[in-house]
């Protein structure tokens, strides 16, 4: 199924309406990524800092093996079918040729990445879908995979606003050179994370959409490798009717995206990675508004899959379907058990063999519509 095809079943009968204010309201329309032509990108400053020093990806790049692409696509297709059967309309991106180089007046990189994780690129806030700046050079043109869908939504929904953040230049001035070493060591990385010294500089606004969590009138944004302070300030100015809160997690030596660290499940409940706890000062916003922050269950795996950027904490990268229902990767039995005990219906989904293409269940989706109106979940400020 490509972007021009209409899903069958109940979800297909729902007219297009772009609107989503939270991470947990009932999901009605979503984009699910694809693994087609997925690449391990060539070395570049943003990427090198984010690949763990002991990763099997160090020193290699190019198109991923076809059998892994086929397996990942089978899992993503299965996930899309599961969502359709639950009444969710599902759209898919249109992959481009990711073997093409990216060349601008400021940089050149020999190939691209893929379109498995739309959550990285697209941020839906209310009636708007915003294309993020991105901070990888290899992901400069990734938004093109979603433009056919954006055009379709524009034609079908007269209230839809399609926005794109200013494209950054991504010169060497955007990156701290001390992150280019292969032998920094975890202790130094943790020291830098605590000091909020990340690979990205403050040369220009940078942010990935997957660093933003939506709590109605409040947006919680992680300051880390892919989002800098200027990026957070840009979001604050772009969404003047929202309150934008910067957070960081000193226990994370590779702070890439927030959704394997801090996951709101329903009003009043958040899962927090126990190795990357929110600092006490930043917890006050949630505590004075009656939110409970619970340590997530441990991962079921000790290592990530082969050729995977992500950590084992994709275990908590779940997709909330509504405040009582959540999709969890089927092998993550500890996370599933915890959420069951917290009162959720847990829907198991096989996705682990697709992790290497860009992440877990939250990463491989982007909300188009969730039921629910704009609300204030932090009335105490």
Short account of what is shown:
With 381 residues, the protein is an alpha/beta fold.
Main β-sheet, spatial strand arrangement: 4-1-19
The CATH class label is Alpha Beta
Question: What fold name stands as the CATH topology?
Answer: L-arginine/glycine Amidinotransferase, Chain A
CATH H-level superfamily? L-arginine/glycine Amidinotransferase, Chain A
Fraction of residues in helix: 10-25%
Low-confidence segments: 6-10
β-strand amount: 15-25%
Number of helices: 7
Shape: globular
Q: Structural class, please? A: alpha/beta
Radius of gyration: 19 Å
- How many domains make up the coordinates? 1
- Order of H and E elements: EEHEHEEEEEHEHEEHEEEHEEEHEE
For the biggest sheet, the summary is: 3 strands, mixed
What is the annotated CATH architecture? 5-stranded Propeller
Number-wise, the strands total 19
Task: Give the overall pLDDT as a whole number.
Answer: 94
Distance between the termini: 45 Å
């Amino acid at each position: 199924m490509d972007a021009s095809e209409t899903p069958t079943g109940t979800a297909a009968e729902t007219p297009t309406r772009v609107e989503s204010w939270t991470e947990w309201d009932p999901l009605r329309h979503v984009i699910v990524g694809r693994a087609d032509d997925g690449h391990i990108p060539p070395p570049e400053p943003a990427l090198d800092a984010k690949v763990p020093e002991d990763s099997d990806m160090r020193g290699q790049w190019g198109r991923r093996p076809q059998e892994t692409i086929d397996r990942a696509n089978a899992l993503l297709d299965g996930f899309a079918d599961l969502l359709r059967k639950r009444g969710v309309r599902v759209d898919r991106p249109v992959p481009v040729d990711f073997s093409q180089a990216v060349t601008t007046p400021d940089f050149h990189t020999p190939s691209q990445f893929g379109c498995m994780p739309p959550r990285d690129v697209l941020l839906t806030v209310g009636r708007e879908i915003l294309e993020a700046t991105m901070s990888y050079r290899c992901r400069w043109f990734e938004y093109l995979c979603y433009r056919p869908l954006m055009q379709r939504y524009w034609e079908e929904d007269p209230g839809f606003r399609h926005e794109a953040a200013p494209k950054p230049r991504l010169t060497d001035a955007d990156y701290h050179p001390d992150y280019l070493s292969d032998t920094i060591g975890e202790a130094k990385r943790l020291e830098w994370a605590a000091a909020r010294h990340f690979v990205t500089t403050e040369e220009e606004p940078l942010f990935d959409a997957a660093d933003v969590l939506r709590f109605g009138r409040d947006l919680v944004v992680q300051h880390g490798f892919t989002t800098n302070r200027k990026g957070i300030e840009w979001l604050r100015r772009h969404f003047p009717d929202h309150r934008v809160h910067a957070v960081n997690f000193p226990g994370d030596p590779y702070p890439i995206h927030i959704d394997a660290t801090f996951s709101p499940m329903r009003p009043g409940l958040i899962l927090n990675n126990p190795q990357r706890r929110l600092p006490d000062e930043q917890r006050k916003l949630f505590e004075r508004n009656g939110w409970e922050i619970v340590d997530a269950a441990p991962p079921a795996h000790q290592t990530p899959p082969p050729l995977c950027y992500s950590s084992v904490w994709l275990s908590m990268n779940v997709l909330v379907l509504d405040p009582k229902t959540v999709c969890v990767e089927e092998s993550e039995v500890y996370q599933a058990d915890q959420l069951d005990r917290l009162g959720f219906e847990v829907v198991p989904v096989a996705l682990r063999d697709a992790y290497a293409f860009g992440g877990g269940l939250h990463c491989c989706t982007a909300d188009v519509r969730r039921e629910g109106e704009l609300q204030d979940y932090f009335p105490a400020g």
